[in-house]
Amino acid sequence: MLQDCSLRPHDEVSGVLFYLLLSVYFKLASALPNFRSQGESDSELNLILDAYQMVSRVFASFGGALMAPSAPQSIENQADLVASAIVVGQEVPLVEFSRLIGFLYAAFEREIPERYRKSIVELSSSIHEDWCEHFIEAVGFDWDIAV
Description:
single chain, about 0% strand
């Protein structure tokens, strides 16, 4: 997905990403059995929404490494990469989170309650805003750009 938008992450991103997302997976996987008999609960929903936020922050924290192995020299190239990353970068965490949640709920033979789905959609705007803020800060740090 990143490469389709002319982004070429640093070679180590996928390996590091695996380990960082593993912590989110284990947090959910260890807690979901506790909610199994309760059906829907606010605690479970909060856990899921926190997981979505964590996945989004993980992706944002990669900053410049999410777009290129090193900072492009030209400001135009930097701007093009940042613009592309902002468009795709908000979608990638949602795709990864959806895959994670879908797998875990299937593994526990549970349906994702409609109320949870609606809450995820409602929260997406603020998570995307948070993603942009943290991503731009990380890019500024990685590429030594005044933000």
